Structures are given as structure tokens and as C-alpha cells.
Fold this protein.
Amino acid sequence: MALGVQEREEFLAGRHVASLAVERGDGRAPLTVPLWYWYEPGGEVRVITGADSVKAGFISAAGRFSLLVQQTAPTYLYVSVDGPVVGTTPTTVADMVTEASRYLDAEGVDDYVSGSGVTETDSAGLVTLAMRPEHWLSADLGWG
């Protein structure tokens, strides 16, 4: 059964490792990679990646990407969104903390941020991409 607007936004805002997919533009299947992300209902999906990464290059060329999150234990749920990139900015310490805080404890966040090389004056070659969800596909498969 499809999730309602509030249910799907709350699920997407939850802590999941996402699968990001983006068109390669070379006739092959899309590039699909796991990554961390953050999202608040009604807002934009944000991800951090290397500015010179293969992923960033494909996203820049396509101008959009999709993201899938899922719950792999009963009851099985998923939410998939896709949309245009509406912002690309140098990654800040605040971005790193926001992302890492979803997945790590306080000590882990500190280690993650310091290990990234991102400082108040240097993005360490990372960019934060913002995607505005345009299309949603979601379901509670209900098995279990």
C-alpha cells in the first residue's frame, strides 16, 4: 500500500543508508551508490560527496538524481524520490555535523568531522548537493 504524504516524508527523514542513482549518460545502467544523507519533511534532500568524484560529475551532467531508502525487516517499507539539484555548495563543518549526527554518537561525529579535513575555511574538496524531491514512490509492503 502506498504511504501517505506525511508517512513517506517522515520515513525519508528517518535514519537510513540511502542508495543514490544517477544517469551515466553513456548507455549503461545508472550509477548506484550507498551514502548518508539528511532530509526534513517539506525540505530538500542533502548529500555530501567529493567535488571531483565520478558521482558528482554524473550528477552535474544529469542535473538530477534519485534516492531510495528502505526498511529491510518486517514490515517492509521503501521511499524513492527523484528531482533536480537545486544547490551545490562547498561543504561546511555544519553540514558534516548535521550528516554525521544522524548516524554516529557524539565522539564518532567529532572523529568523522576532524577526519574529513573540512574546516571553517576549507571544504576539503567536498560539496553538499541539495535535491528538491519532485517525484515520490513509496509503499508499505506489509509482509511480516
User: Anything to note?
Assistant: The radius of gyration is 16 Å. The chain is about 25% helix and 35% strand.
